[in-house]
Design a protein that fits this description.
- The protein is α+β, with helices and mostly antiparallel strands.
- Helices cover 67% and strands 9% of the residues.
- Strands 2-3-5-6 form a 4-stranded antiparallel beta sheet, with no helix packed on it. A two-stranded parallel sheet has the order 1-4.
- A hairpin with a 6-residue loop joins β5 and β6.
- α3 packs antiparallel against α4, α4 runs antiparallel to α7 and α7 packs antiparallel against α8.
- It starts with a helix and ends in an 8-residue tail after the last helix.
- 32% of the residues are buried.
Length: 427
């Protein structure tokens, strides 16, 4: 229970009954349980999340492909037993020979280079996509973490409220028993306690579900316990929208990956233009003749693009279309990034402004209303339910203020994911 609630409980019971409260009623809570720090949760997600591991492995596979496409085709080694007669398969005929042949295909200069350049850009894009997946994962971890932190603070406020309403209920029962109160006060206090108990039950179940979601992001068992969480007050206003957008355009891994894909498509188009040029085939034959001297032969061959109209030229058109598609995808991602940054920054600014409003104006006024209603109830100027409703209003505003704290931190986490790094680098 918060110090304010304990002080208010003491005051209420003293004003209404004149009784002293036993020390057990305002004893401090037991020591807080161990806390799961945000940095530890992020580290656990980086190490244990299976989807992030899959993204990293896909990047490793893409980098392993780069030297493959730049290598020459494997040479062909063949053995030929030539000119053997069918009536004995002997080796004494004049034309009989045993031939060992070695052939190597050499693509036209530039074909392998452009293919390797394309795969290199795609590998870089895969590595950046893994970093984008990591940034998105961290943002999701933070969102779940802050939501759980909000739930913990909300539960604390609601339980304090329920305890206070139970004290109100005890007081109303006592006053009704001695003839100084109304039965309606008792009934209204009972309804208020039941209503807050319902809210506590809902939030407790939601916390279990959100805890399972956080455990899934961390790569842990769903039923693993989630201890108390940190939830600090909002920080300073975020940098301007232009600075955030400039930082995202330069640093967001997804945008950098999109640029790498455009470069890969450009290399693929240049390679497609070279596809019309022939490939070379070099060969060397060694022939061993039993009756005569051995022979050595050499050969050179070229491929003929005889079906260029249905192969090489459509390949160019395909590569050009893919390049245009990647450029459009990059532009769409850039626009979507700007829109998400604008939305998240507006959300953080709204949460920060409302948090200040609740802290400096709304909550102090609501608490003053509670204190005023306490004094007024003592002299019979307001009814008992007014006192209860004023206290419920204060606690509703306290819960909303904690919600604004979580909303601010969640918006900051979304922006950091779009920036691909910590926000402090732009401050």
């Amino acid at each position: 229970m918060s110090p304010r609630s304990r002080r208010l409980k003491v005051w209420v019971l003293t004003l209404l009954t004149g009784w002293m409260i036993s020390p057990s009623l305002h004893a401090l809570h037991a020591q807080e349980p161990d806390t799961l720090r945000l940095a530890d949760a992020i580290a656990a997600a980086r190490d244990g999340n299976p989807m992030l591991r899959a993204a990293r492995l896909r990047a490793d596979a893409a980098f392993a492909r780069v030297p493959q496409v730049g290598a020459l085709p494997d040479p062909m080694l063949s053995l030929r037993l030539g000119n053997r007669p069918l009536d004995g398969f002997g080796a004494n005929e004049r034309m009989t020979m045993n031939t060992v042949q070695l052939q190597q295909t050499l693509p036209w200069p530039g074909k392998l280079g452009f293919a390797e350049e394309r795969e290199s850009h795609l590998a870089d894009a895969a590595g950046l996509s893994a970093r984008e997946a990591e940034a998105a994962l961290i943002s999701r971890v933070k969102a779940a973490y802050y939501e759980l932190g909000f739930m913990d603070r909300a539960l604390e406020i609601m339980r304090d409220t329920r305890d206070l309403l139970r004290e109100f209920l005890d007081v109303s029962n006592t006053l009704y028993a001695v003839g100084r109160g109304l039965q309606t006060d008792v009934l209204q206090a009972q309804v208020a306690v039941a209503s807050v108990t319902e809210d506590v039950t809902v939030v407790e179940q939601n916390r279990l579900a959100m805890g399972a979601r956080l455990n899934a992001l961390l790569g842990r068992e769903p039923e693993s316990p989630v201890p108390a969480l940190e939830l600090s007050d909002p920080g300073e206003p975020l940098p301007s929208l232009d600075r955030l957008m400039a930082g995202a355009a330069e640093s967001r891994p997804a945008l950098r990956a999109a640029r790498e894909k455009v470069r890969a498509a450009e290399a693929a188009y240049r390679g497609a233009r070279r596809a019309l040029y022939p490939d070379f085939r070099l060969g060397a034959d060694y022939s061993q003749r039993p009756q005569f001297a051995d022979m050595l032969s050499f050969s050179v061959g070229v491929s003929i693009p005889l079906w260029a109209g249905s192969r090489q030229f459509p390949l160019r058109a395909e590569a050009l279309a893919r390049q245009a598609a990647e450029e459009s995808t990059q532009l769409d991602l850039l626009n979507e990034t700007y829109a998400r940054i604008a939305e998240a920054r507006a959300g953080s600014d709204r949460a920060l402004r409302l948090f200040d409003l609740y802290s400096t104006s709304i909550l102090p006024q609501a608490r003053a209303a509670v204190e005023s209603s306490l004094s007024a109830y003592r002299v019979g100027e307001v009814d008992f339910m007014t006192l209860v409703q004023n206290e419920l209003t204060v606690n509703r505003y306290e819960i909303e203020r904690v919600r604004l704290v979580a909303a601010y931190h969640t918006a900051v986490a979304q922006i950091e994911a779009l920036l691909g790094g910590e926000l402090e680098e732009l401050r």
